[in-house]
Every structure is written in structure tokens, then in C-alpha cells.
Amino acid sequence: MDKFDRQILEILKENARCSVSDIARDVNLSRSAVTARIKKLENDKVILGYYAQLAEQEKSRNVCAYILLKFDMSSCEHNCESYSKQIQSIDGVLWCHSISGETDMMLYVEVESMGRLNQIRDQLQLYPELRHLMTHTVLAEFFNKQKSCSS
């Protein structure tokens, strides 16, 4: 791979729909030379495909999870309410419930990646009275009468 191939790749990374004529002009080669180089880069598996980059609002949230929180306190009633106000500001957390049983709170999260889910978990683990956090990732949704999770 020479400097022309690298230049072609940089142009295609910026705009995969850039015309061969525009690329040829920018790298100072003929259209046929650019076409041949692109074909070789594809055949050599340097270029694996061309993709559309979506606007942020168009990206689907494709990781859904339930997060269970247990706090070290005799009654979650007042403290859970204050935690819920903090949790409400976390992007991706769609609902938060105080529930009965061994778990104090249950959250439902829809985010764009496992990395973002881990960021939310890390943020929650900073709460001082949190004693246990358990995450259940949604593997499949069979039905949801309220809202669908993108899978």
C-alpha cells in the first residue's frame, strides 16, 4: 500500500459515496487508476464494506436490561426516593420502581451499547449505601404492550 492508496482510503473513510472522479482529482491520478486501486483494496480485504452513518437521533437502542439494586438500610422508603431522583437524570434509564422482596429497586435500561450499559452500572455502584447490583440483559422480547426494545 502506497501513499495514493492511503489517500484514497482517507477520502473514503470521510465519505464512502465520494465519486471516483472527485477522488482522482484529489489524489492526482486518473479515474481508471483510482478505480483499479479501489478494486484491489476491496479484493485484498482492506476495504470490507461501505456504511451509512446515522444521525444520533436515528441510532436505535439495541441493548436492553433490567438492573436490580439492593441497599444497606432498614427502610428504602425515603432513601430510594432520593436515589430515584438521581437515577432519573441518567440517560438510558427509562423507568425505576421500588419493589418488594429482597431487591429494593428495579430499573429498566435501553442503551446503544454494552459499553454504555457498563457506564451506567459503574455510575450506580458509586452510591454509598448500595450493597448489591445485578444486571439481567434482555436476550429476546416476545411481546411488550407498552414499547418495543430494538433487538
UniProtKB/TrEMBL annotation:
Gene3D superfamilies the UniProt entry points to: 3.30.70.920, Winged helix-like DNA-binding domain superfamily/Winged helix DNA-binding domain
InterPro entries for this protein: ArsR-like_HTH, AsnC-type_HTH_dom, Dimeric_a/b-barrel, Tscrpt_reg_AsnC-like, Tscrpt_reg_AsnC/Lrp_C, WH-like_DNA-bd_sf, WH_DNA-bd_sf
Keyword Transmembrane helix: no
Record key words, sorted: DNA-binding, Transcription, Transcription regulation
Domain HTH asnC-type intervals: 1-62
CDD domains in UniProt: HTH_ARSR (cd00090)
Domain of life assignment: Bacteria
SMART domains: HTH_ASNC
Protein name: Lrp/AsnC family transcriptional regulator
Lineage per the UniProt record: Bacteria, Pseudomonadati, Pseudomonadota, Gammaproteobacteria, Vibrionales
